[in-house]
Amino acid sequence: MEASDSAMLKLACHCGSNTHxxxxxxxxxxxxxxxxxxxCTTCRWATGTFAATxxxxxxxxxxxxxNPPATLTVWKSxxxxxxxxxxxxxxxxxxxxxxxxxxxxxxxxxxLATGVVELPPGETFGVDCVAYIDSVPDGGxxxxxxDVKLRGLLRDTLAVDDIVAxxxxxxxxxxxxxxxxxxxxxxxxxxxxxxxGRPEELPPYTFSDNTDLVIPNxxxxxxxxxxxxxxxxxxxxxxxxxxxxxxxxxxxxxxSCRKIAGSEVQGWIFVPTVCVELTLPSGETVPxxxxxxxxxxxxxxxIIGTYKSTPGDPGxxxxxxxxxxxxxxxxxxxxxxxxxxxxGLFSQRGVREEGWIEWWTERVSFVEDAEKRHDIxxxxxxxxxxxxxxxxxxx
Length: 395
Ligand SMILES: [Zn+2]
Ligand SMILES: [Zn+2]
Ligand SMILES: [Zn+2]
Ligand SMILES: [Zn+2]
Known about the structure:
Blueprint lengths: L5 E7 L6 E7 L8 E5 L2 H7 L4 E5 L15 E7 L2 E6 L5 E6 L2 H4 L6 E4 L3 E2 L7 E6 L17 E3 L5 E2 L1 H12 L7 E4 L6 E4 L42 E2 L9 E7 L2 H7 L4 E7 L3 E4 L5 E3 L3 H6 L1 H4 L2 E7 L5 E6 L5 E5 L6 E5 L14 E3 L16 H15 L5
Parallel strand pairs: 3-10, 10-11, 16-24
Antiparallel strand pairs: 1-2, 1-9, 3-4, 4-8, 5-6, 6-7, 7-8, 11-12, 13-14, 14-18, 15-16, 16-17, 17-23, 18-19, 20-21, 21-22, 22-23
One zinc ion binds next to helix 1.
């Protein structure tokens, strides 16, 4: 292959409303394939994930001085940056710095959300670094992906020992009485209360099949265990005596989550809807709405956009903040009164809230989906196991 061979970097959101192709030369420069993980508060709250994953754009996807394509919603997330997400499926697509020193570059200050990017054939993603670990006092995703460059902010280097020390400190934080969640623009505010063994938290009132996180989807049907009616997989043991039962949380690397979050990994918490309250912009607090209300009632659908990510009825319904684009929920198929909520929303204190959430360490959900793109899912699985060992087996 000649050094001057040209190829395309293709970008497409989940619903296909937004597609772009960027001309690049091979071999592909690292800045177009080594992923920058950002754990800053804006990235966490504006995506709903643990970290946004980005690469530099080879060229601007559109003229930043003109109007962006009508298929995009723009969210000016700070004085110096804007985010662009698909108005239909909510996929995060672009981030742009408006700083003069960056906008004069050939790419006009644009970065691409890697989750929606396909590299030229034969190329795979690597990791540049995990940045803004200072925004997450317990290390966040970096605790599980520590074999890469670790940055406190953008340039200063951290060692694995620094992360371990932070984890220890964060473990001593007082556990909040209620778990509060928010998207970056604050249009969507969610409050969780503890599961206490009420019938509404258990089958048959609340039900879901096994989750791929715990029992891989490829497990033959006759080898899938039945969901335990008294101790279903979504209710977990307390972390400290008398702290209360917890929810299950985990990472997903499935193609749909990736192409909707724009991030290589999405985090979910599995919660019975009876434990969820929504605070509307008016200040009124209401129980978590039904699927039908979320789709049809203007009280909710003026704030939370919905998207059917799997064809079929009832299908999978996902929800996002219409203003800032944050992933909010996943609700699917055989579900009854159980919803997956985006973990990034619940990182107000910047920590994984282990007093409320048991993080699953045995698997990254649908890790097989990402195998041809990168080995990040497998590295996270190793990192989760090492983290569990570090904690003496009690996560
Ligand atoms: Zn889309
Ligand atoms: Zn960030
Ligand atoms: Zn928002
Ligand atoms: Zn997924």
